[in-house]
Amino acid sequence: MSRPLAGADALVQLDPVFAQMAMSAGHNLWSLPDLTPREKTFVCLTADLCHPHLGTPLAMHIEMASTHDVDAESIRELFRHLAPYVGYPIVVTAFQRLTELGLPAVRDDQPPTPAPLDDTLNDIVRELRTIAPGLAAFTEAQLTQRWTRPHLSVRERALACLVVDIFYQTLGPSLQLHSRIARAAGATDQTLDNLLRATAEFGLPRTWAAAHALAASSSPTEPSHP
Q1: In principle, which of 65, 88, 190, 207 could form an S-S bond with 70, CB 3.0–4.6 Å?
Q2: Residue 41 backbone phi and psi in degrees, to 5
Q3: What residues contact residue 168 under an 8 Å CB cut-off, 6+ apart?
Q4: How many CA atoms lie within 13 A of 172 on its CB side?
């Protein structure tokens, strides 16, 4: 924990009032009851990819991960999973940064094996085929490589994708898809409320918009599919 403490000390030197605000915002994330420590760590690591913050913030979050049952392979798997959502180029840079930070060598070097999609993911692919067949084929190939792999649970994958939706403001079909997957994997209304609170320190206006979109998508008057 020495590096985060050093970061806090540096903030105090820059602006003691802001330092108190920043540390209070950080305590908000770690006090949330309906997200696991791993999921909270994944929120921070996903935020690093979305901004991107691949310097000191990523280094601090990698160090923090080791204290919250997040091993190196889980971090690598998170980045693999998020590549098509945040963009492959930024993940290439992130993997380079992981090497610089001394992350242990990769253990899982097996090529991805496509697996059948469940009904929720299939619905998106079928819908895309009617409007953009080429995009549907690419989407299907990406999805079949990811959601059943080891090292992360489906719930962890869905919550990380929701963090991307909040940051990138993809608040239509993508947010609806990932919220349905998260709920099917055990997430509750309280879980999603906690996720919104967890992302708020990274940009309130985005989180406000996502809160409205999630509320609308769960309304009984809304259609079940976008």
Answers
A1: 65
A2: -65, -40
A3: 50, 86
A4: 2
Q: Are 76 and 92 in contact (CB under 8 A)?
A: no
pLDDT tens-digit map of 109-158: 888 899 999 999 999 999 999 999 999 999 999 999 999 999 999 999 99
pLDDT confidence tier of residue 107, bands split at 50, 70 and 90: confident
Q: Token pair of 134, please?
A: 């080429």
Q: Give the largest CA-CA distance in the chain.
A: 57
Q: 93: which 2 tokens?
A: 């840079």
Contacts of 40 (CB under 8 A, 6+ apart): 29, 30, 32, 68, 198
- How far is residue 140's CA from residue 128's CA, in Å, rounded to a whole number? 10
pLDDT (0 to 100) of residue 8: 66
pTM over 0.85: yes
Q: CA dihedral in degrees (89, 169, 191, 215; nearest 10)? A: -160
